């Protein structure tokens, strides 16, 4: 493949990703179709697959843009905090705000399933895990003598709890929740969890339980 052809395919890929990002941002993955994308781009459906990436790969690339957008918000939230507990609260509120403002894009992160149950590629897993690393860095400031494993586990637990509240709130699964109420629920949840962080520094927090 010549350099000119590679450059043309690279440009086509970026155009396709831009179109997919707009479609996902409007109607999520349910409204995504390669034929409609090809029509918008102005190429044949077969041409899309000549760029060397299948549909799963293209969706992951769009989702990676979403992860970048969320990550930027979380990092900005940290800079405005004077204490790690406040930073955790701000990060959680930034997350719920993004989920409410960009619900279809946010939902695509979790509703997408790889064909044939394939694992996501390493580059995507690293980008996804970077969000937990940012949170773990804040936890480290709050409990300096906690182990790296403890910080990582607490970060994932905190994210899972916040994500669960946000998901149920947006889907209205357990009753109607207003945007303001959802933010308050997330704030209260994080404050309670942050208040219990001190247990990570206690030796008994990691000691095996006796039978």
From TrEMBL:
Residues 89-192 form the HTH-type transcriptional regulator MT1864/Rv1816-like C-terminal domain. Transmembrane segments: none annotated. InterPro entries: Homeodomain-like_sf, HTH-type_TetR-like_transc_reg, MT1864/Rv1816-like_C, Tet_transcr_reg_TetR-rel_C_sf. Keywords: DNA-binding, Transcription, Transcription regulation. Gene3D superfamilies: Tetracycline Repressor, domain 2. One of its GO terms (molecular function) is DNA-binding transcription factor activity. This is TetR/AcrR family transcriptional regulator. It comes from Lichenicoccus roseus. The lineage of its organism: Bacteria, Pseudomonadati, Pseudomonadota, Alphaproteobacteria, Acetobacterales.
